[in-house]
Structure prediction request, 377 residues.
Amino acid sequence: MGAGGRMSDPSEGKNILERVPVDPPFSLSDLKKAIPAHCFERSVIRSSYYVVHDLIVAYVFYFLANTYIPLLPTPLAYLAWPVYWFCQASILTGLWVIGHECGHHAFSEYQWIDDTVGFILHSALLTPYFSWKYSHRNHHANTNSLDNDEVYIPKRKSKIAVYSKMLNNPPGRVFTLVFRLTLGFPLYLFTNISGKKYGRFANHFDPLSPIFTERERAQVLLSDIGLLAMCYALKLLVSSKGAAWVTSMYGIPVLGVSVFFVLITYLHHTHLSLPHYDSTEWNWIKGALSTIDRDFGFLNRVLHDVTHTHVLHHLISYIPHYHAKEARDAIKPVLGEYYKIDRTPIFKAMWREAKECIYIEPDEDSEHKGVYWYHKL
Prediction:
């Protein structure tokens, strides 16, 4: 995955790891003015088309796997199941991305439609819609702020744990990446791992969690009810079809959604060229610019372009995905060297970031003492 060495864009300079500047000369208003007006339009009909499209594709994958894989000889079945899991996880991640758009009010002009669609899609994929919507909103409001960001908060060198040093080798990195990709999102939801440090235990299922405000707590409870209803439906399905069938047809693809989600967001927010800021340097536009687009090759389209329009998304999150590429291309001349896309093949990039991006420190000789950069051990 990833396009490797294409260099057709000025934003893809010779050294993709070169640090971005930290004092943008433009404003959010300048960027909005550069975007065609129709890119801000949200069509419930067009958005719904993508939901229906993905559901049909997901059903076709299910039908083919359920009908034909059991008929295959055992060796071929062992090969066919991973193909189904990858394909189904990819298309379900696309549906998850649409649910994420609903949380940003990018699905339609009506908040109640967005929340209804997002609640159904995310509950079906075992994500607490409202809970994650609100914590994710906090992330967008405080991106790359060391004091207030909600997730992906790197550690200073002095805070690096002993086990991180022990795992700073190829086998350790493999373990770290597998652990992060498979358990990272569930642990974040359940324990707030890698999230903002609150005064007490925080998670996404407790309506009284410090992550949420008073007015949000009822909807957090509604998210829990949605997940309980989904778990009950799965219990009935296990009773009818068996645990192995449910795991193969649904469980592993949904785990794949979690893997895709963590992989995409990890690569968007982890790169040697991206700064983090403490309270002396951070402001909203600096933080929003401190992300990077990635190229997932043919999966870009399957994932509704969330992979390579992430910089735009952090600047203007309510633009729907079907306008995102046009809007991104419109603001690139304004962004100039503040925009980057890394087309390094995904597995190579994942390994590089796991090796090179271990802790953050400011440059000793810099006048920006509140600007922190990634380093390796």
